Amino acid sequence: MSGDAPIGGYFGLSLARAAQPWPWLSAAQGFQSARAAIAALFLAHRATAVWVPHFVCGAVRDALAHTGTPVRGYALDARRGAPSDLVLAPGEWLLCVDHFGLGGAACDAAIAHHGADRVVVDASQALLHAPRPGVATVYSPRKFCGVPDGGWLVNAEGIASPTAADERASAERGRSLLSRSAGLVADGYAQFQRAEASLSDCTPAAMSTLTRTLFEAVDIAAMRERRLANYARLAGSLRGLLVPTLDDDAVPLCCPVASPQAPRLRKALAERGIFTPAYWPDADIPDDDPNGLALRHGTLYLPCDQRYDVADMDRIVHTLLSLEETA
């Protein structure tokens, strides 16, 4: 502890640092959220415009609006990346999303084509994908583990120091984590929704002490191993359904399953206690972006994270296949 820290009194959370540190953490700048990190980047690097996929989290557009940066949209190619014929005008940047932790190859192709200094990788869904050398990369730890807020920005020079963290707000957002851990799932979900809404401010504030403390206790190796094992179980058991093959360095956020019945299946699974997200329903996707439309309307996103084991994956498979058979 620091020399002026209080001694004695009541206990807080007792957390030990993970044995294996996050390899890029020492070079990362911590912000209140990923959107705040994106805002900090483009407040420092005044782009004439940023190209973003139509299928993208609204927080990205909010962050760019906060900086006054014009946004141009592009349709995703078959690899969920930027089309090879996209041309950046002078001063323009490309934002490449590492969708679901499965888009590393697409991001690498964009970097090779446009250069490391013209691309920013939104790795909010790809926490375990290492940043590419010299490429500004944004991470969102709360997509992968139990932290109340936070975003990391790696490989970005000339970024202004963030404003002070709002420690009280972060502690309030942490209530949803405690409720979920106590089994109060419904209470925790309402608190989680309020916590998410409280992060709408894109001002580049610093990451909270609570988030840093919780994040540094996460076991990377265990997270990686369980997610890969769960994904493999789903991919090997969901006969007749299309599940993407993982690249060698991919660690998935979830298991995306292509299905034209995705909205119906999502509702039916929820009725049976299996909850799957609907990513970015507010995204404005034009008809000439079929891959973006398929990801929004025709894909089911199955959980495969480190909270679950083989028995949980088998329950998902059994339930989903039974619903498919009754369609």
Shape: globular
The CATH architecture name of the largest domain reads 3-Layer(aba) Sandwich
Strand content: 5-15%
Helix content: 25-40%
Rounded to the nearest angstrom, the radius of gyration is 20 Å
Structural class: alpha/beta
What is the CATH class designation of the largest domain? Alpha Beta
* Total domain modules: 2
Order of helices and strands: EHEHEEHEEEHHHHHEHHEH
Average pLDDT, all residues: 92
Uncertain runs = none
Strand order of the largest sheet: 1-7-6-5-4-2-3
**Distance between the ends:** 59 Å
CATH fourth-tier homologous superfamily of the largest domain: Type I PLP-dependent aspartate aminotransferase-like (Major domain)
- The helix count comes to 11
Tell me about the biggest sheet?
A: 7 strands, mixed
The beta-strand count equals: 9
Provide a compact summary of the structure.
With 327 residues, this protein is an alpha/beta fold. The protein folds into 2 domains: 25-215, Aspartate Aminotransferase, domain 2 (3-Layer(aba) Sandwich), CATH 3.40.640; 220-325, Aspartate Aminotransferase, domain 1, CATH 3.90.1150.
Secondary-structure blueprint of this entry?
Blueprint (H helix, E strand, L loop, with lengths): L28 E3 L2 H11 L4 E5 L4 H10 L3 E4 L17 E6 L6 H11 L4 E5 L12 E4 L11 E4 L12 H7 L1 H7 L3 H13 L11 H7 L4 H18 L17 E4 L3 H10 L18 H8 L1 E4 L7 H16 L2
Parallel strand pairs: 2-3, 2-4, 4-5, 5-6
Antiparallel strand pairs: 1-7, 6-7, 8-9
